[in-house]
Known about the structure:
Two copies of one chain form a homodimer.
Chain A: E1 20-22, E2 25-27, E3 31-35, H1 39-51, E4 55-59, H2 62-71, E5 76-80, H3 88-91, E6 100-104, H4 109-117, E7 122-125, H5 130-145, E8 149-151, E9 154-157, E10 162-165, E11 168-171, H6 174-185, E12 191-192, H7 193-200, H8 209-227, E13 232-235, E14 239-242
Parallel strand pairs in A: 3-4, 3-5, 5-6, 6-7
Antiparallel strand pairs in A: 1-2, 8-9, 9-10, 10-11, 12-14, 13-14
Helix pairs in contact in A: 6-8
The first copy, chain A, binds a DNA duplex through helix 6 and helix 8.
Amino acid sequence: MKWKSRFGSNSSLLLLNFHHLKGDGFYTMPDILIIDDDPYIGDLLQETLENAGYGVSRAFKGTDALKILSKEKPDLILLDLMLPELSGEELLPMIRDIPVIVMSAKIDVSNKVDLLLGGASDYITKPFDMRELLARIAVQLRKNEKNELTFRDLTLYADTLTVKVNSTEIRLTRTEWAILKLLMQDPLKPVGKTAMLEKISADTPDCTERSLKQHISNIRKKLQSVNGEDYIEAVYGIGFKMKS
Amino acid sequence: MKWKSRFGSNSSLLLLNFHHLKGDGFYTMPDILIIDDDPYIGDLLQETLENAGYGVSRAFKGTDALKILSKEKPDLILLDLMLPELSGEELLPMIRDIPVIVMSAKIDVSNKVDLLLGGASDYITKPFDMRELLARIAVQLRKNEKNELTFRDLTLYADTLTVKVNSTEIRLTRTEWAILKLLMQDPLKPVGKTAMLEKISADTPDCTERSLKQHISNIRKKLQSVNGEDYIEAVYGIGFKMKS
DNA sequence: GCTCTTTGTGATTTTGCTGTGATATAATGA
DNA sequence: TCATTATATCACAGCAAAATCACAAAGAGC
């Protein structure tokens, strides 16, 4: 049975985290990392989140956050943009596979787009209502648990092997899904063909560079069948990336 | 529902993008070389940087710095301009491929421009707030890790083979990118045509002096398509350099 | 058995990259 | 000044990479 500890707290508080019993094991509430240099707001957030049952850890500087993340993996990150030493914008692209909700005082439209493209899952402008924050946290955690991956108007579902394009669902084959997942995990960076082959070789051992292209073409065709848009871009001599 | 493992497990190391990954996978914090003849300021800097987790080495004279640089390659250099024997201004053009942040008591505007054109990545005027310095260090290290190269309003990206001109992104071919990188690495110095050919010969073995000119022309055209400006200057009989 | 889906491969078309000849423009030096 | 040489651009051709079509082999489900 897996057993977890809250980071930054002593063991006497542990039991508070374990009120959700499921199956024959302990179900643990998600952990949230707050990255904010303002101690007042941070305390407020921590109290709210702990009252809601989440495990909470704190970082006040970007470098602290990196240190924590090198040791522990929270289920969600609340990231303030204004940070000393290493700003939130710089920190954001370093975080992978963890949903990040960006909190900032002023986010204009282009900034929002940049953030979402840069890897943020959601954003919320300060000051905000705590209930709204809790709702957004729940949404992100739910997506994470269901292994959903979103980029622009595409949402990839793990359990059904499908993508939603503008609320129309498309069925993918196992390899198509694996490839699209690789591309959507890092929408900005192109993924090399050999790198792709390695990563999906577990499922498809004899997939060659030749057949990979065919799969890409098939994915394109399926996505284009909805609104005619091409979501995949070739980087000559390198590989593929999502169109941004 | 997701079952998660113990929080303290180190599996999360995989999930972060450690751009500082060196050698065979050990994560090391960046090394910074401090070049300053003032022992008091130097000590203060060293303490601050080591507290922030960086590795630090010191040089008190320009000649010392050269000796150190011939043996080891730091990830960033903090350079004081007022140095005995070999001044910072003289030292600066000798440093290649390492971001340099210049620290100086008085930098007027023209001086700032000269420094940046001459190869400094950033400058900071003494006295300065340590947090500001740490922030600027983080910015430079991050750019270095991501293989970004900036000159005026151009930013060159390695992974996508693109340049950003005033926030509009332009795609380059492999050779165009290699050439522009050579030019932007030290924008003041003209690069000879034969020297260019040698350095990009790995990618393009049969690129001749004749075709090199064509590539230059193509780069110019692509850059001009944004704002009509010509960023490349020909030095008669020598080669090319960036327009400053 | 049959059908449908998935997946890899050959063949072909399309696209983009790169080098070269021809020609025009600009710089240098006597 | 003119002659010479270097530089700039156009247009095009050869080639390599990418995209698509059509089809066959291998499984899955009935």
